[in-house]
């Protein structure tokens, strides 16, 4: 990935971008998974949201905008700064599968004039769909092999 990144010649028009999946890619949910005995106890979305609100996690691409502020604060605490925008799943996308949601967001970015150089995720659903980027990278995730 670094070789590819260093070989990119930016256009200079500030519309160059990367898409980075947050949960289990830029950050880890391992502490939450540990509290659920690594899948032995059932996942509870409400409980996860409460846990995320306490600052246990510094970002999650499934977050609704209701936890956007704590996500931003925790991203900054972890050293993630300098990004232009944090895109969180809103109520308009509730119930939509990951591939459809991420394709829709990528399409919007391309239509706004962004050139998406790369996409980084930990699951195939992070890398599939329409409006694929110039290059996709998957990082291993031993917690959730989907």
From TrEMBL:
Pfam families, per the entry: Acid_phosphat_B
InterPro entries the UniProt entry points to: Acid_phosphat_B-like, HAD_sf
Gene3D superfamilies: HAD superfamily/HAD-like
Tree of life domain: Eukaryota
PANTHER family named among the record's database cross-references: ACID PHOSPHATASE-LIKE PROTEIN, HAD SUPERFAMILY, SUBFAMILY IIIB ACID PHOSPHATASE
Name of this chain's protein: Acid phosphatase
């Amino acid at each position: 990935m670094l070789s590819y990144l260093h070989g990119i010649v930016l256009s200079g028009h500030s519309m160059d971008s990367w898409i980075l999946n947050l949960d289990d890619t830029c950050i880890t949910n391992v502490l939450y998974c540990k509290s659920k005995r690594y899948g032995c106890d059932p996942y509870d979305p409400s409980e996860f949201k409460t846990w995320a609100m306490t600052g246990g996690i510094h970002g999650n691409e499934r977050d609704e905008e209701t936890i956007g502020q704590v996500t931003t604060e925790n991203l900054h605490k972890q050293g993630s700064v300098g990004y232009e925008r944090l895109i969180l799943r809103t109520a308009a996308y509730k119930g939509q599968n990951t591939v459809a949601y991420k394709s829709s967001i990528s399409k919007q970015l391309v239509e706004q004039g962004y050139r998406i150089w790369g996409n980084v995720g930990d699951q195939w659903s992070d890398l599939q769909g329409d409006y694929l980027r110039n290059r996709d990278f998957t990082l291993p995730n031993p917690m959730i092999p989907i």
